[in-house]
Amino acid sequence: MGIIQCVHHLKFNHTVVQHPTNCNFKNQKLKIKTMKNSIHISDFKFQFAGYGHYKVTYQSPVTLKEWSRTIDSMWLIDATKNSDEPKKCDLLELKRICKSK
Fold this sequence. Notes:
101 residues; two-stranded antiparallel sheet; globular
């Protein structure tokens, strides 16, 4: 039950998964996680846009789409850009603001 015996090359997120030969796919489930679970400060670009304002751009690591907003919430900038290790909840809040319309 461990190895799926089949000749397939599946490409997910620039990683090639290779399986050996001779397999029956009936009643077999192949689960490969392709989504990125965590958010990082490297997903954001910060550009100074005047006193108390930053233009923040969020780029999705999965789809590579970008969203930008000018943010004047300095507590959030301090908690993310100016922090050594930003909290996940602060990064998610910044992402939510960038993606909001």
